[in-house]
Amino acid sequence: xxxxxxxxxxxxxxxxxxxxxxxxxxxxxxxxxxxxxxxxxxxxxxxxxxxxxxxxxxxxxxxxxxxxxxxxxxxxxxxxxxxxxxxxxxxxxxxxxxxxxxxxxxxxxxxxxxxxxxx
Length: 119
Known about the structure:
alpha+beta
């Protein structure tokens, strides 16, 4: 199940067994395996942010949704972010703008700015 693989990757990263760069590469491969591709090559990859969603009704759950934000620079020079959220039931949500994600998860406003304030 994608969630179990995702959790194993991030657990290895948080445990110091793999670098965050390697975790990002493995998560991107996991997304591809599940039919989700990265941005086109004309977008420059900048950074990744990882999060565990523990708000609303997830606060008391043992297995919480796991998130990955991929930050890119678009050809016009502006930044953009793709957000992927793996749920314990195996579903992976994808959002191609923070605004899109915040409509469903209002408490996530500015999540990547907390990790990467330079963006």
